[in-house]
């Protein structure tokens, strides 16, 4: 059952509003009380996202801590995203998709060749986008800070045998997820360029990002 909850926030009241093209990325700090909305503009896009405690960048989002605390492998309204140390970074406060993946990780040149074929090695991927943005941001972040990430809007079912499947998305045009910052949190997004599996319907599309203050 998908846990879909609408937001009371209005677009015209947002203090920040931008479009992130497919295959590009975005990095910005959220202050405590701010709310970030990620909008799947055309449907079935995968939005790979990492979070860091701004005061301690080494303390990044932890899929293990998050899953263990909530006793659920999927993220949806009410989920609290935790860091490696167990700190509460953000809380999902609205979600019109209903379920998001935190197991599938980010595509990379290496994983593309293993999953698909060697001739995909040159193709752009989320790990490259992450590393580019970290390098542009400054010396506080390096590739060592990359960790298993959230894949918003991505559908990765777990089989009875414990395997992961990259399946058709369950999102649609205009669906969104909203995250409330519980502490100063750096957000790192790769708007996935993946062309080899159905996580974004083989057609990467732009997303919209909005921020509201308290």
TrEMBL record:
Stated name of the protein: DUF1989 domain-containing protein
Residues spanning the membrane: none
InterPro entries in the cross-refs: DUF1989, UAAP2
Pfam family, one: DUF1989
Record-annotated DUF1989 domain positions: 19-182
């Amino acid at each position: 059952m998908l846990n879909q909850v609408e937001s009371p926030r209005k677009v015209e009241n947002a203090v920040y509003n931008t479009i992130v093209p497919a295959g590009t990325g975005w990095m910005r700090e959220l202050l405590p009380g701010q709310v970030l909305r990620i909008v799947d503009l055309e449907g079935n896009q995968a939005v790979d996202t990492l979070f860091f405690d701004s005061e301690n960048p080494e303390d990044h989002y932890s899929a293990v801590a998050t899953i263990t605390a909530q006793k659920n492998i999927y993220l949806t309204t009410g989920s609290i995203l935790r860091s490696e140390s167990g700190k509460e970074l953000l809380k999902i406060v609205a979600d019109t998709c209903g379920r998001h993946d935190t197991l599938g990780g980010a595509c990379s040149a290496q994983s593309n060749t293993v999953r698909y074929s060697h001739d995909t090695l040159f193709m752009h991927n989320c790990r490259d986008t992450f590393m580019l943005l970290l390098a542009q941001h400054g010396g506080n972040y390096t590739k060592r800070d990359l960790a298993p990430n959230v894949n918003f809007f991505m559908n990765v079912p777990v089989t009875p045998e414990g395997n992961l499947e990259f399946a058709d998305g369950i999102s649609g045009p205009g669906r969104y997820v909203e995250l409330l910052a519980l502490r100063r949190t750096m957000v790192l997004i790769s708007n996935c360029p993946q062309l080899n599996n159905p996580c974004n319907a083989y057609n990467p599309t732009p997303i919209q990002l909005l921020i509201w203050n308290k």
